[in-house]
Design goal:
Mean pLDDT: 88
Low-confidence stretches: none
Number of helices: 4
Distance between the termini: 19 Å
Number of strands: 0
Order of helices and strands: HHHH
């Protein structure tokens, strides 16, 4: 909305924007629902079969290496540091 104001000098409220977008929403939301229903109906998956596959894959991967532990620690530290930062970008 800032771009609109800067380029044209016009402003719109949230309510005006909502009323403008509502017809688009009413068309696209049901369309998205039916598309997702069609995509999701391709194949039934058995939870037991999926569990066996994941357990087998986990055994193939083996133990977590030292390098993987260090990488995870660096990622967790970066996330924790960013979460503590009260900087506003």
């Amino acid at each position: 909305m800032g771009i609109l104001q800067n380029t044209t000098g016009q402003t719109i409220s949230f309510a005006q924007w909502t009323l403008f977008v509502a017809p688009v929403l009413l068309v696209l939301l049901p369309l998205a629902f039916f598309v997702l229903q069609g995509v999701g109906q391709t194949e039934q998956v058995s939870l037991a079969t999926a569990r066996r596959f994941l357990e087998k894959r986990n055994q193939q991967l083996g133990q977590i290496s030292r390098r993987e532990i260090i990488t995870a620690a660096i990622i967790v530290d970066a996330i924790a540091t960013k979460a503590q930062c009260s900087c506003v970008l």
